[in-house]
Amino acid sequence: MLYEPAPMMADDPALIACRECDLLVRPAAASASPQASALCPRCGALLYRCSGNSLENTLALACAALVLLIIANAFPVVSLDIQGQRLDATVFGAALQLWREDMPAVALLVLATTSLIPFLEIGSVIWLTLPLLYGRRPAGFARVFRALQGAHPWAMVEVFILGILVSLVKLAHLADVLPGPAMLGFALLMLVLAAISSIIEPRALWQAWEEARE
Amino acid sequence: MTTVQAAALGKAECPTCGQLGSPAEHPACRRCGTLLHLRKPNSLQRSWALLIAAFVLYLPANLLPIMETHSLFGPQKDTIMSGVVYLWSSGSWILALVVFVASVAVPLLKLVSLTLLLISVQRRWQHQPLQRAKLYRFLELIGRWSMLDVFVVTILVTLVQVQTLATIHPGPGVLAFAAVVILSMLATMAFEPRLIWDAVDNSPRKEINP
Ligand SMILES: [Zn+2]
Ligand SMILES: [Zn+2]
């Protein structure tokens, strides 16, 4: 059956399209109250989420994440004690070791996924939310927003933590292994990053951008 | 309930800011300047190319050693699978299972499922779009966990550098394995999930694929 769209429907500003199945949805029809998250009625993808007071919360969490990420990078992740000889592994030291072992591509990949990209992600969240909170438009908003979207899948803090746990087990028969302060840093960072990505809502951020001064 | 796809009205959602735009009238989003497309351009070709590259590297990733240990007991080469076997035989069954799922099951599941999804949208299958959409969402979630072994090798190589006892060096397999993970993540991102529903909605083909 051919569908003939009503002419006024196409320009309804309240309409949104599902990102995964392209279904046109009127938000009021998708959820009972505008404060709740809404899922696509056809494919179940998240249309938008509840974002009450999210700017302040997002900024606070991003600042906490920044501190945790600095701790996670400054201190050793794991230390090894072999016959009185102590060896530390920091993220940067690990990447450097891979580089020396003639694996520059893998070294860069590890450094990027555990350190550089999380820095980029947290930095852009702060860049976007701090001026908005004071009613000003951040410089290069669209570009930074796209960088944040692009960076997100490549930050692999939680996978790195699992990697540390597996290494601890594999090393246990060789020597005394001690989890370093960075391990705790990474674990907390994982939780904070998960919290940030669960409250950040693109539509709400852009709404705030539209309301802010040039 | 009648369902209307945005593309049927010539509308596309801006991937950056979520506003609806008409790419035919305004190629760039009027709010944020992002280029609008009804569908990701060339998603099938790009996804296939990346997927095939991942398939090609899958064999060396699993057959070549990911690390080489030199110890008092002589040199020893470890592949992905022998690492799992080692964990299993040393009694860490849960961890062996975790590593097996992340390093063996997930990459294979991802490559096979994405192949299936690509074939299904190319053949314009109409059945079970919801299951396929859910499968795609699942693939996006699990891909990153395959980086596990790359991180494990990195940490072992950094810590085990005691000349008198043992040294561990990365093997060529770790490079191939990392490439498989990256390529299959890129292939998944290049895939266009809306194509799954296009076959169902019977949207005019020419409008969808300019
Ligand atoms: Zn949908
Ligand atoms: Zn836009």
- Biggest interface: A-B, 63 and 70 residues
Bound molecules: zinc ion
Measure the end-to-end span of chain B: 28 Å
Q: How many separate structural domains of chain B?
A: 2
Nearest-integer average pLDDT of chain A: 86
The level 1 CATH classification of the largest domain in chain B is: Mainly Alpha
Structural class of chain B: alpha+beta
Report how far the terminal alpha carbons of chain A are from each other. 48 Å
Rg of chain A is 22 Å
CATH architecture of the largest domain in chain B: Up-down Bundle
Largest sheet of chain B: 4 strands, antiparallel
Proportion of β residues of chain B?
A: 5-15%
Rounded mean pLDDT of chain B is 89
Low-confidence spans of chain B: 205-210
- Report the C-alpha radius of gyration of chain B, rounded: 22 Å
Number of helices of chain A: 8
Strand order of the largest sheet of chain A: 6-5-7
Explain briefly what this protein structure is.
Chain A has 214 residues and is mainly alpha-helical. Chain A is 56% helix and 11% strand. Chain A has a 3-stranded antiparallel beta sheet. In chain A, strands 1-2 form a two-stranded antiparallel ribbon.
